[in-house]
Design brief:
Elements (H helix, E strand, L loop, with lengths): L17 E13 L5 H5 L2 E12 L15 H13 L6 H12 L5 E10 L9 E8 L1
Antiparallel strand pairs: 1-2, 2-3, 3-4
């Protein structure tokens, strides 16, 4: 039985045939949180995503259809956030990771969601998860 590789960080790897696809500091408004005001007043969140992608040597015929598109990843996040209120940042992270892993080429997803405007003396608070196949 082969041991499932642990991906402790996301980098491109020639030896593993992995490409690193990422989204950095996606700043958006969301209805997220357990308090009454968080259910009605959108608040700022920052989303970071790192994907380990098993792909060929390069985009075949320079065609976007042959790669994992960061634009599609962003649209998935926007759809999840716009679907309505979510209580927990942890839940949002899980939904984003699961949506990324629907593409069979994505072998692992690391998702970080930050709430930058919640704790006065902290730059941000949040959750980071990593999920793999």
């Amino acid at each position: 039985m082969s041991k499932k590789p642990m991906i402790s960080h996301h980098v491109a790897s020639a030896s593993s045939g992995l490409r690193h696809v990422f989204v950095r500091d996606l700043d958006m408004m969301a209805l997220i949180g357990i308090y009454d005001h968080e259910k009605t007043d959108p608040q700022r969140i920052i989303v970071n995503i790192d994907l380990s992608v098993k792909e060929g040597a390069g985009p075949k015929d320079d065609d976007i259809g042959h790669v994992v598109s960061y634009e599609i990843v962003v649209k998935k996040v926007e759809a999840i956030v716009s679907a309505g209120h979510i209580n927990l940042v942890e839940t949002l992270c899980e939904k984003i990771a699961a949506s990324c892993l629907t593409d069979k080429r994505v072998v692992a997803a690391r998702v970080r969601v930050e709430k930058p405007d919640i704790i006065k003396n902290a730059r941000s608070v949040g959750v980071e998860i990593e999920r793999s196949r």
